[in-house]
Specification:
Length: 558
């Protein structure tokens, strides 16, 4: 990634091809301003301004570039800077004193405005009689930074104007107007993309590809932009163009894979990761992308292998540690998941999803109090996330703080009314409070958004049975059994509802299914004994009851 040159003040990790930092807007290392001044390093920073060491590619001379920080300045300040820079260039045309600093150019590229300074060959020179005036004037052009060993003498040298001799007026010098810069559409596209202005970015990339069909960076940027705009088919075509121009670039293959993932063309997605790794077996983003794709498709063990490879190449990838933690969590390997999440935390603890995931792991480890503190932090970082409120409510439910849990389920559902899990768990809390009608209403909402939620059908049937609405209960149990024919509790409770309706033979058949699938379950045998006795089959009833007691005794002795 292209880390921002302002390591202390910003330090943002940008895309490899980013010309400007998407956080503060200053140029990244290697950026060429207006096709001429290549940025090398940051040598100074003051209120709203930064100073870079750069190379003038036109004549291969070292220069200094002073620019305003886009994040810290407004449009009016940038206009004023350009006006002052124009005046400084004009004044510098009079400067011929050896050792003087001269402003030789200025302009705007992407989000920044800048001026370029250089020095003639250094020769000792007495201060000009006008130095006080120039000191005051130049402080407007170049806000002063206290000199340090890293900055050098150039920062404290002032522009000097030659003093006229005699009484004659100096000959007027024609005002120099800088040649209008050619518009850099690619730079504008990159900058708009970094700031999330995707329509503007797309227009700029289109203009670039019209002018230069072989611009790989423009096709790649266009692909990324179209994906953000929800146009994956067109994004795929753009990446195809980039790959046609640069077929051995693993980044393009990996980007193409992300588009295919959105299109749910998973086999092609995996092929792209394979291609990327063919050209660069150590391309960390291909390994991490491959792992995430495998995890989403349910290949958790294979995903872990890919994550291991990615982290072996770059152990500082917080996102990959988090993905590994999520995958281990899905495998119920909670202790290992906690270790992975803690590694992610050590790298970046600002993500609400990390706090949320760690909280979920601790709840699974039967530590709901510790989980609650983490989920509270997640809701503070990201208060508009329904998932964070839902997970916090689950902690409160496990702690039997049902009133608070209901409040947080309601917060989650206010943010996302389609969250079936929140409706379901809300129903469970209401059922625990014996608010059965309200609980049924919650189960119905859960099933409205996810009719494959087996437990919701079962719990609904159980409540209806409790309310003696046995016919409705049967319908709910049948829906649960249609989803899972081996659902023992559903067979058992279906038998009880049929018994309550006087349909004894059907009740016995349901309980036979329960004891067949779970012969070690004593409740089903007790219920079967009751039905057999009601049918007058007393000896069979005694046998079932004795077996049930035997199972209870085995449980007590275990």
């Amino acid at each position: 990634m292209g880390k921002c040159l302002d390591f202390k003040g910003c330090g943002f990790d940008n895309r490899d091809e980013a010309r400007f930092c998407s956080q503060c807007g200053i140029p990244t290392r290697g950026t060429v301003l207006q096709g001429r001044y290549e940025i090398q390093s940051l040598i100074g920073k003051d209120r709203g301004t930064v100073t870079f060491q750069a190379t003038d590619l036109l004549n291969q001379q070292a220069v200094t570039v002073r620019a305003l920080i886009p994040r810290d300045t407004n449009a009016q300040e940038r206009d004023n800077f350009l006006q002052d820079a124009e005046l400084a260039v004009s004044l510098s045309t009079h400067v011929s004193d050896p050792g003087s600093i001269r402003v030789v150019d200025y302009g705007q590229d992407g989000p920044i405005v800048y001026m370029v300074k250089t020095a003639a060959a250094a020769t000792p020179q007495q201060p000009s009689p006008l130095s006080r005036i120039i000191n005051r004037l130049s402080s407007d052009f170049f806000p002063q930074t206290p000199p340090t060993s890293d900055i050098g003498d150039e920062e404290t040298t002032q522009i000097r104007i030659a003093v006229p001799t005699g009484t004659s007026q100096p000959a007027s010098t024609p005002r120099q107007t800088p040649t209008p810069a050619v518009r850099d559409w690619l730079a504008e596209g990159n900058m708009a993309y970094e700031h999330g202005n995707y329509e503007q970015a797309l227009m700029a990339y289109d203009m670039t590809t019209r002018q230069d069909r072989a611009s790989v960076e423009a096709w790649s940027g266009k692909g990324a932009t179209l994906l953000h705009l929800g146009r994956p088919e067109e994004a795929l075509q753009a990446y195809d163009q980039a790959i046609a121009l640069s077929p051995r670039d693993p980044e393009h293959w990996t980007s193409r894979a992300s588009v295919l993932h959105d299109l749910q063309r998973y086999d092609e997605e995996m092929y792209c990761y394979d291609q990327a790794l063919t050209f660069d077996p150590d391309y960390v983003y291909a390994w991490s992308g491959r792992g995430m794709a495998l995890a989403e498709q349910g290949y958790a063990e294979e995903a872990l292998v890919a994550f291991d490879r990615a982290l072996l190449l770059d152990s500082q990838q917080a996102t990959v540690w988090q993905a590994m933690g999520d995958t281990l969590y899905s495998l119920h390997r909670y202790d290992e998941a906690l270790q992975a999440i803690d590694r992610a935390f050590a790298l970046d603890d600002s993500q609400a999803s990390l706090w949320d995931t760690k909280g979920n792991i601790l709840r699974r480890l039967k530590q709901p109090e510790q989980a609650l503190a983490l989920h509270e932090k997640a809701t503070q970082i990201e208060p508009d996330s329904a998932t964070n409120w839902f997970d916090k409510a689950n902690d409160l439910r496990d702690m039997r703080r049902f009133g608070e849990a209901l409040n947080d389920y309601d917060r989650a559902l206010a943010l996302d009314p389609t969250l079936a899990g929140a409706w379901y768990n809300r129903g469970n809390v209401l059922a625990a409070l014996r608010m059965f009608e309200d609980a049924l209403n919650s189960y119905d909402h859960a099933l409205q958004y996810d009719d494959g939620l087996i437990s919701a059908w079962y719990n609904k049937g159980s409540l209806l049975h409790e309310l003696q609405r046995h016919q409705e209960a049967l319908a709910a149990f049948d829906r649960a059994l249609a989803l899972d024919v081996h659902y023992i509790a559903a067979w058992n409770n279906k038998g009880l509802s049929l018994f309550a309706l006087g349909r004894l033979e059907e009740a016995l058949a349901a309980l036979d299914q329960a004891t067949s699938f779970a012969p070690e379950e004593p409740d089903a045998w007790y219920n079967k004994a009751v039905v057999l006795e009601k049918l007058g089959r007393k000896q069979e009833a005694i046998t079932c009851r004795d077996w049930a007691r035997s199972l209870d005794q085995q449980t007590e002795q275990a």
